[in-house]
TrEMBL record:
This is Mut7-C RNAse domain-containing protein. Signal peptide: none annotated. Residues 4-80 form the Ubiquitin Mut7-C domain. It holds the Pfam family Ub-Mut7C. InterPro entries: Mut7-C_RNAse_dom, Ub_Mut7C. Residues 90-231 form the Mut7-C RNAse domain. The lineage of its organism: Bacteria, Bacillati, Actinomycetota, Actinomycetes, Kitasatosporales.
Amino acid sequence: MNGPEIQISFAPALGLFVSAERRGGHTPVTTDGASSLGHLVESLGVPLTEAGRLLVDGRPVPPSHVPAAGETVDVEGVQRPQPVPGAPLRFLLDVHLGTLARRLRLLGVDAAYESEDIGDPALAALSAKERRVMLSRDRGLLRRRELWAGAYVYSDRPDDQLRDVLERFAPPLAPWTRCTACNGPLAEADKDAVRERLEKGTEHTYDVFAQCTACERVYWRGAHHARLEAIVTDAVREFGGTPAAG
């Protein structure tokens, strides 16, 4: 580029996305004099989903602002908890975040999940069509213009991923109300009504059942219940909600 020079700095939380030399305060950038600030921020590595306020000489500007020579730009991190206006808070997760999707559903959070790689354009279009926040570790996907909203998942560990999403968006929690397999709502089920769907021996061991109203999968307090209960208890204690009986 051969145009106006500006000074730019990024919040410490954005250090993951920018080169090492841009992590210590304001550094010079030569612009082309025509591109928007949003385009410039993304060209330096930061998806706009992760950028909070954009300040030029201390005043907020939109991503469409075209930087002028001598301006000082500060790129803040997103506000936490982050408001998502315009639709009920719900999520769409890409193929690499299956465990996170199941844990969000366990907590009653509306979390659609694509178990097959349908491609970035299709995911972005689905995010826009259903007005879901796209959760991904794919920075390229989060830069797609057709996304309705998105967020980078910073960790590769499911425990940390869950905590990050709950802290960032503060979704209301309603544990044990969604099917972890398909995201459909659960309803109490009579033992006689689901008897044919139970595993051998289960009908003699358990008496409380729930069934998905969408895919008809049946749930009961099986061998993994204690581990799931711990996930629910920890999340409710830290982020609020009602620890309904599982």
